[in-house]
């Protein structure tokens, strides 16, 4: 029987644990470890019949992680802590020869870089240890990469342009809150935008480029160009690509709050002196904002995330849209989490399932689009994230 170590006990983790328990024949015993053990115990209490052990763990400490992996004899580590912990957890996986999966690229707490470089650099060490690392197995990155691979495999000889379109039309009733970890979310959306065209990255000011996209089952929404990490690996792996962009929807209230917070420096990641103490503005802001995990019960509406790919097949132009719609209330009903955590947690479980079943298995450190998309797409349909394809 397998043992699955899940690190982190936030919104995404709750979904991963529920979904792994639904697939207990593959995941076996669940070990849930995070900084605050009581949060692990809360999740465990929702699943009284499941085989779950909980531990307190400082995932910034490689030795502590190594000791826990050895103690519980984990077959795989699912990292759904924060991007700051990616490298320490990967190092513990190398030391213990244990497979690894995460949902977000490594970030340094003092410097937002949004890049895979330091994780890709561990490829050799993973190969030497005879283990696999799957990077970015959430929705975006994650499912969006798989959608691109599926389009490439079944619909195109060559894909020329890709737009990734991420819409969250959920309403939680607060004037301002983030749907996942506020620090990570606000760093991402307040940074300069960037897209890739003809082999070069083109930088934009934050929210400089806007379009309106009519999202099926949601309706037309203002969508803003952002940089998003899956583009870094997709430009390497999708052949013939000439342009890739990423758009995300934001409501007027969110944008107004964000602009004000940014103007007064509340999104800063540099320490400032306050009453003789150093504080980091964005970390302080996090303590004031609603905990994303608490939004679940009050969020209504849908998410729609997908890709539009354009290219050629048999010499003819072709354009397709692959997307997935989730309903916040339905997600909450199933696993006590809103759709943003749900759409991240389900693909994390699916990626880990395919690794444990050796359906997706290659030693080294890999991104999602490097694997056959078909089994992943089939699992999405079975595990709560059914998708659709339109020819445009
Ligand atoms: P949360 O903030 O809700 O949860 C993070 C968890 O990690 C918390 O339980 C936290 O513990 C724990 N943690 C933080 N630091 C440590 C540490 N040093 N040691 C042990 N545990 C630690 O975040 P989310 O659940 O919303 O997000 C989880 C991950 O998913 C993030 O990496 C995020 O970027 C990613 N994500 C990916 C998406 C995708 O589509 N690919 C979309 C959304 C999120 P404590 O509670 O004690 O602070």
UniProtKB/TrEMBL annotation:
Pfam families per the UniProt record, alphabetical: Sacchrp_dh_C, Sacchrp_dh_NADP
InterPro entries recorded: NAD(P)-bd_dom_sf (IPR036291), Sacchrp_dh-like_C (IPR032095), Sacchrp_dh_NADP-bd (IPR005097)
Ranges for domain Saccharopine dehydrogenase NADP binding: 5-132
Saccharopine dehydrogenase-like C-terminal domain span: 138-385
UniProt cross-references to PANTHER family, sorted A to Z: CARBOXYNORSPERMIDINE SYNTHASE
Name listed for the protein in its UniProt record: Carboxynorspermidine dehydrogenase
